[in-house]
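Deliverable D2.4 — example input (structure tokens):
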């Protein structure tokens, strides 16, 4: 097998992926609720390594996506250029989502685009299970990766979380819960409003909302969560003190 390089074609990347296919791994994926009909059974670690080797190539990324192979699509999301990835591109890719793992992997690309906020709003209102999950997976990744974004941006999404907390579909409710917990753990400033939403949901008469709320309350009130946020706040204050004064 020819080693992969930045000059490798989509066909060469796909041939390489097929050479790594593992039926044992495919069957193992089933235990995590992953659909395997389009998967080759290759770990995310190996997929990330391949993406690093072949580097960014926007045109090739779309050729990889069109193969329909799960691993090729994940690599496509890692090698597409977020600067020129359009809203319509995101809509087209999201329309093909059929398993939580591809949602969570590709959402990272969507968050790197300039239209990530518009996509969250649009996808949250979409009735398709995996498209709606995309909105909340994106919210999670944005909360973690968009470090320069003010906390107020994420606090403003708490009503969206509350709005969809009654969606009982498994992969939506888990993503809504994930987003609430992630926002609450971003900073000390966000902890209190996120916890307030979690406590409100925990007291709901709706089974799904109550599950989301109770699980979030459990994590957000855990001692290790509070200790980590307090330590993070101290570090942030120290950094601010060390900044040179403006003249």
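Example output (designed residues):
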């Amino acid at each position: 097998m020819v080693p992969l390089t930045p000059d490798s074609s989509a066909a060469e990347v796909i041939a390489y992926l097929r050479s790594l296919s593992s039926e044992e791994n495919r069957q193992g994926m089933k235990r995590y609720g992953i659909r395997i009909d389009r998967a080759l059974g290759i770990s995310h670690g190996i997929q990330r390594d391949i993406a690093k080797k072949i580097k960014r190539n926007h045109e090739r990324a779309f050729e990889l996506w069109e193969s329909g192979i799960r691993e090729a699509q994940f690599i496509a999301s890692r090698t597409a250029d977020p600067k020129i990835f359009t809203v319509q591109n995101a809509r087209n890719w999201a329309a093909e989502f059929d398993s939580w793992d591809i949602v969570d992997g590709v959402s990272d690309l969507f968050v790197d685009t300039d239209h990530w906020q518009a996509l969250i709003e649009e996808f949250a209102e979409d009735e398709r299970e995996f498209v709606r999950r995309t909105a909340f997976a994106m919210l999670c990744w944005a909360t973690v990766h968009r470090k320069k974004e003010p906390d107020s941006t994420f606090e403003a999404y708490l009503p969206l979380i509350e709005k969809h907390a009654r969606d009982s579909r498994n992969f939506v409710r888990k993503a809504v819960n994930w987003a609430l917990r992630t926002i609450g753990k971003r900073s000390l400033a966000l902890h209190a409003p996120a916890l307030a939403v979690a406590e409100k949901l925990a007291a709901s008469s709706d089974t799904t909302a109550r599950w989301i709320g109770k699980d979030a309350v459990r994590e957000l009130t855990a001692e290790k969560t509070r200790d980590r946020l307090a330590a993070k706040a101290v570090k942030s204050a120290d950094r601010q003190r060390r900044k040179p004064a403006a003249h």
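Residues 133 and 172 are 5 Å apart (CA to CA).
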